[in-house]
Amino acid sequence: MNEEQSTVNAVAVTQPKFRQIIGEPKPGWRRLVWVFWALLGPGLVATLANNDAGGVISYAVTGAQFGVGLFIPLVICLAPLAFTIQEMSMRLGAVTQEGFSKLALRQYGRFWGYYLITTLAFENLLTLVTEFIGMTAGLILLGLPLWLSAMSCLFLIVTFVLVTGYWTKERVALLVGALNAVFLLVAAMTRPSMAEIRHAFAAWNVPGANHDGVIWYVIATVGNAIAPWMIFFQGSGTIDKGVTSGEVRLSRIDTAVGCIIQVIIAAGIIVCGAALFGRVQDISRAGPADMVHALDQVVGRWPAVLFGIGLFNAGFLASITVSLSSSWSIAELFGWSKSLNDKLAEAPNFYAIYIGSLVLAALAILLPHLPLNLIAVTTQVLGGILMIPLLIFMILLTSDKALMGEHRTTFAAGLWSWGMVAVLIGLTLATVWNALAHPR
Fold first, then answer.
1. Most CB atoms closer than 10 Å: which of 32, 85, 197, 227?
2. What is the pLDDT of residues 2-56, one digit of tens each?
């Protein structure tokens, strides 16, 4: 009996924390609530992190350029697009228990497998540079020199991986993501006109005569709804968490909740920027520090301080998730240990990629005369190039009966997915064309 009990205890120890939690007996509706709480994670973290430092500035500048007008209802309508793509990533990981990079390598050959990973790693590195720019902006305004701000941010993000176990790291990431609510507080502090917001949903137009560049901002707003790293992060996070095909239905709720919260916060950031509408010259070229300073001048000290805190928080969460998407994908492609449940000594290559990419990004922003606009455009173009084959492969893989079994994409859902992807591909191609033809 003692030997049998020891075996049971040993199995429980090796199980992911998530599976241990949902295995605990809970009667009636309390079990459903308990399982839902345990499932919250990959989808919510991925979508919240999509409101990264670059995205926050992009949304705020959009509001400052055009007011609430077209963009508040537009950003709300992007939730179904993000959900369609993220749900496929979650379902693929839960059912196959393999990451996207490995599946692409096996199903479509070495070229596509290595192409996806190479472009993802390079784009992620450029994205991390923008995150450090956003994070350091607030610290610089407090009087810290750039080098100390960059090293402080690097220390905090690297410290995150020293926390033990996937479950604990995920709960910390959720707490960090919850701090995004500060943008809603700042939006309320700007005292927006609710009549104007209601009119925005009814009219769907750009207020006033400020229509210059509106197409670019529409494309950028849609592009902010989804990023390549999110797909790799959610699929790998689903696996590392221990989610299986049995939890697909409830995991969709995790993803849906994340998509809804993400667009609400994005709308709040646009409202923050709209407080500067018509009051600040040349806002389209504003950087993080410029935006915080403008809010200080127009709205007041505390909204500006809170916006700076939110900007730091957005960059912090995105730096974690973007780095992890690279680490998971590269480690899986080469067959290395890749779990956040592993310690540094147990998965040295996995953590080396995570820490190494962060170090490179932190050092990059110390370079004098860094071409920030070029980095932003290059990241956007690379993301567009990567997304096209990525989304096509995603639909094909999730529609494969041999691979997905009963969880394959249905015919109706497939039509919807192809429609959403066609829209995104069209906008991506338009983004690439605008970036090449009209560099900003």
1. 227
2. 444 443 344 344 577 777 777 777 777 777 778 778 888 899 999 999 888 888 8
Interior/surface letters 339-376, b for 16+ CB within 10 angstroms, e for the rest: bbbbeeeebeebbebbbebbeebbebbeeeeeeeeebb
Q: What is the dihedral of CA 354, 359, 365, 371, to 10 degrees?
A: -60
- Minimal CA–CA distance to 307: which of 193, 107, 440, 141? 141
Query: Which amino acid, residue 303?
Result: P
Identify the helix (H) or strand (E) that includes residue 114.
Answer: helix 110-141
- 3-state SS class at 281: coil
C-alpha dihedral sign at 209, 214, 217, 218: positive
Q: Please count the CA atoms within 13 angstroms of the CA of 423 that sit on its side-chain side.
A: 17
The model's pTM: 0.88
Instruction: Please give the Cα distance from 399 to 51 (Å, whole number).
Output: 30
Q: Which domains does the chain have, with CATH numbers?
A: 46-437 (1.20.1740.10)
For the purposes of burial, counting CB atoms within 10 Å of the CB of 35, is it exposed (0-12), middle (13-18) or buried (19 or more)? Answer: middle
CA 43 to centroid of chain Cα atoms: 9
Position 383, amino acid: G
Q: Which amino acid is located at 242 in the chain?
A: G
Residues 429 and 432: their CA atoms lie apart, in Å, by: 5
Extract the residue ranges of the chain whose pLDDT is less than 70.
Answer: 1-14, 164, 206-213, 282-286, 372-374, 376-378, 380-381, 431-432, 434-440
Q: What is the pLDDT of residues 185-244, one digit of tens each?
A: 999 999 988 888 888 787 777 655 455 567 777 777 877 778 889 999 999 999 999 899
